[in-house]
Amino acid sequence: MLEILNSIDAFVWGPAMIVLLLGTHVFLTFKTGFIQRKLPQAIRMSFRKDPQGKGDISNFGALATALAATIGTGSIVGVATAVLAGGPGAVFWMWITGVFGIATKYVEVYASVKYRVRDHAGNMLGGAMYVWERAFKKEDGRTPWWAKLGAVAFAAFATVATIGTGSAVQASAMTGIIASSVPVPTWAIGIGIVVLVSVVIFGGVRTISNVCEKLVPVMAVAYAGGCLVILALNAPVVGEAVALIFQCAFTGKAAFGGAVGSGIMMALQFGCARGLFSNESGLGSAPIIAAAAKTRNPAEQALIAMTGTFWSTVVICALTGIVLVSTMIANPGIQADILANPTLFSGAELASAAFSKIPYIGTPILVLGMVAFSYSTILGWSYYGNRCVTYLFGRRAIRPYQVLYVAVAFLGAIGVGDVMWTVSDIGNALMALPNIVAILLLSGLVARGTRHYVYDGCLDEVDEDPIPVVESK
């Protein structure tokens, strides 16, 4: 069974998916008039509160929750794995996916906010499932069967991905990190994770966003600070590391004595794949929480949301990549310890080796950072699953889903094997497909709205379109 799942996983995340996602990023960049140039303005907007906006949580709360779900262990171990598998050049391609992925994040959030709805309790609901439902509705009010299929497919695949990626995988990562540092039984760590997660997610979206607003800035700044310290220690070779990253991105040059360096295609494939995992642009996850934000119009929240891709990939992943490459150059002995026989799990070893170079505090920063990243990812993805099961089965399904979510977190902590990792990986790819199709079909509409709100200076304009109320199931 695992062999079959691995084959499916390799297929869905193969070159076709990489080309589709990266091609979408580039196409939407040009379609939106290179919306990336509005990034400085978007960053300033993300820290302000908009009292005139319609929604459940603040702009920054929505961004912080999306970042909580995005900046996970993949921002550290995922980068290291990309470097080991694709060489230093993978860091460059990871960065490129972040730069162009900003436009995709903008478009998918714009569509999600424009087509969001309310339930009878007044809570905002959004995401690709509601985009499919409303954007393609006929004049008589009926949703075509193909649009309904796109909506259900996204919600179903996303639910599978949330339970795997958001719960089991992150709990497993937390347990491995903690158990390797403190002699505590895995079942005890699992119970602790269940308690910490339950007290937050059972409180609803406002509780989740409040915790993420406080946790995400602290953990990101602490981790970035650790990276800057390592770069200061590696200062004599940082320039060489950056040059090597660019050189390996466009040539088949081997690095570190030939232990790493598999050619341009490997650097491109692993760099793009890990970059896409890091920023989630195109997956359709961040638009779910963005739809709950208090915003005047779709473009306002879309601009704020696109900064998440900038922070997660263009900044955090790039910092991690330069840290790892410079550390390997400055410490050739790492070759013998890690690069001689690189495996899937060597990424964690490489990250640990880099941070251990900071006297006294290096390893604690890495451990606490990865635990905080994993915990915040569990919180963020729990909200995504909450909204997807609400669409599929109604509000009565929320509590059973939350119970299942924390139960799977416990199973992940005590070890559920490789099956859950692979299933969630497949779920991520499959949820991206209906989301990408929807935003490509709506790219013209978003482009017109962007010209009005962003380029014509109407960002303060309040969207007066009514937000429909959906029937509770």
UniProtKB/TrEMBL annotation:
Gene Ontology MF terms in the entry: amino acid:sodium symporter activity
Keywords of this entry: Cell membrane, Membrane, Symport, Transmembrane, Transmembrane helix, Transport
GO CC terms in record: plasma membrane
Entry's localization field: Cell membrane
One Pfam family per UniProt: Na_Ala_symp
Sections of the chain in a coiled coil: none
The protein's name: Sodium:alanine symporter family protein
Chief location bin: membrane
